[in-house]
Predict the structure.
Amino acid sequence: MISVPPGMRVYLASGHVDMRKGMQGLSALVQTDLGKDPFAGHLFVFRGRRGDLLKILAWDGQGFCLFSKRLERGRFVWPRAEGGVVSLTSAQLSMLLEGIDWRMPHRTWRPETVG
């Protein structure tokens, strides 16, 4: 599990990316396609065409880190837009990594009385 420190932003690259890309290719996409600074210390999340694999690119001040996760069943929930970037909270990233629909999570329990 990745813990996101306060102040760190999470950007989701909408659309799909060629998952053969490594750190150099993904950081170039961050700069050219997303218009963001890959050296800013934020997390950039990419999804493959099939939807069961994602990669997270991060700059830690000394070099790039690349994390990946593949779901055994199901697909990661992704925005429908073919281009651009979506900003996520750390809670939404956690739901995304668990395979939960982070866009409209539903409460499973609601209190009925106070106290």
About this structure: The beta strands are 10-13, 43-47, 53-59, 64-70, 85-88. The chain has two helices and five strands. The longest strand covers residues 53-59. Helices lie at 23-32, 90-97.
